[in-house]
Amino acid sequence: MPEDESLGALVAQASHQISTLVRSEIELAKAELRFDAKRVGMAAGLFGAAAFIAHLCLILASFTIAYGLVALGLWTWVAFLIVTIFYLLVAVAMSFIGYRRLKGLAGMKRTARSLKGLASGPEEGKTTAAAPATSTPAPPSPPYTGPTAGQVGAHRESISDGT
């Protein structure tokens, strides 16, 4: 009966039940991840096959366009040259658009700001060597009150002990 048990026994019981729950949730997540990984792998294979077939169709369409130009009265080499130049122009345009999109990237500003905050440590007013002296300091974040990496799971026994 719960009234008869000591507080320490209740805490130990709750800790054991939470530990069991966490282990069960981890096992469930692993099983779901395995299932999802198989589905993603199959989908990736199908997308790869579709891309290969689409590439073959593009090659065949290129020949069709070139021979259509030949049928209109162009020399064969001129027809194939026109198709080749068209694809080169498409490739140059796509490269230019891709370059412009990459040029507009701002980098990882939030990550860099976060790392600067970590590097400065508890001395929030000082600037680090990596940060210019003219930069405004980041607003102080509330202190972390949760367990540290060394404390998380330190009281638990190994999973491989037969449970």
UniProtKB/TrEMBL annotation:
Residues 117-163 are annotated as: Disordered. The chain crosses the membrane at residues 40-68, 74-99. It comes from the Bacteria. Keywords: Membrane, Transmembrane, Transmembrane helix. It holds the Pfam family Phage_holin_3_6. Residues 154-163 have a biased composition (Basic and acidic residues). Residues 127-136 have a biased composition (Low complexity). This is Phage holin family protein. It comes from Planotetraspora kaengkrachanensis.
